[in-house]
């Protein structure tokens, strides 16, 4: 079965299970991330938001946990990789990163980025209304904080996932330099591949590894260069931030002089 077909099958089973457990409490189910980008590399998980009219009770949490375990058994291996947040509708309508109603109450720290992806159409609507009726748009200061949070995550996981980190550094450089955040890792990597040819060999290694086809020796090659790639990306990102700040200051001065 192709990935897109598998995601559709899992999504429909997920929806049916949610409706059986939550009934009218369920507002919407939205998949986002790599599954919503046709050019994306093979995905290792399915990112989701489940939107709820009100908070969950313990019996519902237990039933939802059993649903996830059932999907993992019915649709291996991807059925075990549903990775997301159960959010109250009132929280989803705010700019503040919301806390999940499931698990350990994780907060969606990339909330601004996820909202913009979903609002821009990079989502799969499994159930519910047009998500633009729910998710508020994000302004750049909020987006920048979320992007820097992603950079912080990369910095902390270099040795664990060098392939993911290389590809995500591509996306971060692209987003800071173009102000376009609705982009897949695959598309951003292709941009960097042509804009920064020195990154080419490491992008090739990261792509291969991310698709599950890398070797131990190739992983060591990525690990040997990852610190240098990080420092280079950090410098580019900082330059982009400073350029935006200077442009904003110049625009503010121009506006003041026109008054």
Account of the 3D structure:
By secondary structure, the protein is of the alpha+beta class. It has two domains: 3-133, Beta Polymerase, domain 2, CATH 3.30.460; 140-258, no CATH class. It is 58% helix and 10% strand. A four-stranded mixed beta sheet has the order 3-2-1-4. Strand 2, helix 2 and strand 3 (82-88) form a beta-alpha-beta unit. The longest helix has 43 residues, at 216-258. It is globular. The chain starts with a helix and ends with a helix.
Report the CATH architecture of the largest domain: 2-Layer Sandwich
Strand tally is 4
Radius of gyration: 20 Å
Count up the domains: 2
Main pleated-sheet profile: 4 strands, mixed
Query: What's the pLDDT, averaged over the residues?
Result: 94
Helix content: 55-70%
Strand order of the largest sheet: 3-2-1-4
So how many helices? Answer: 9
Oligomer: single chain
Tertiary shape: globular
Order of helices and strands: HEEHEHHEHHHHH
- What structural class should be given to the helix and strand makeup? alpha+beta
As for the CATH topology of the largest domain, it is Beta Polymerase, domain 2
């Amino acid at each position: 079965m192709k990935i897109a077909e598998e995601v559709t099958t899992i999504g429909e089973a997920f929806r049916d299970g949610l409706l059986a457990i939550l009934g009218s409490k369920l507002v919407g189910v939205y998949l986002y991330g790599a599954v919503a980008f046709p050019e994306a590399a093979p995905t290792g998980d399915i990112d989701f938001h489940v939107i709820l009219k009100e908070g969950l009770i313990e019996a519902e949490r237990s039933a939802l946990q059993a649903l996830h375990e059932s999907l993992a058994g019915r649709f291996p291996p991807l059925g075990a990789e549903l990775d997301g947040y159960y959010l109250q509708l009132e929280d989803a309508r705010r700019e503040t990163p919301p806390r999940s109603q499931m698990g350990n109450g994780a907060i969606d720290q990339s909330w601004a980025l996820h909202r913009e992806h979903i609002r821009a159409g990079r989502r799969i609507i499994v159930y519910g209304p047009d998500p633009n009726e729910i998710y508020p748009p994000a302004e750049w200061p909020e987006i920048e904080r979320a992007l820097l949070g992603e950079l912080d995550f990369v910095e902390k996981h270099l040795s664990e996932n060098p392939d993911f980190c290389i590809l995500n550094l591509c996306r971060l450089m692209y987003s800071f330099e173009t102000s376009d955040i609705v982009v897949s890792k695959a598309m951003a990597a292709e941009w960097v591949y042509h804009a920064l040819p020195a990154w080419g060999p490491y992008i090739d290694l990261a792509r291969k590894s991310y698709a599950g086809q890398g070797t131990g020796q190739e992983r060591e090659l990525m690990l040997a260069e990852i610190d240098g790639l990080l420092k280079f990306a950090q410098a580019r990102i900082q330059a982009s931030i400073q350029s935006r700040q200077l442009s904003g200051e110049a625009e503010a001065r121009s506006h003041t002089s026109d008054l």
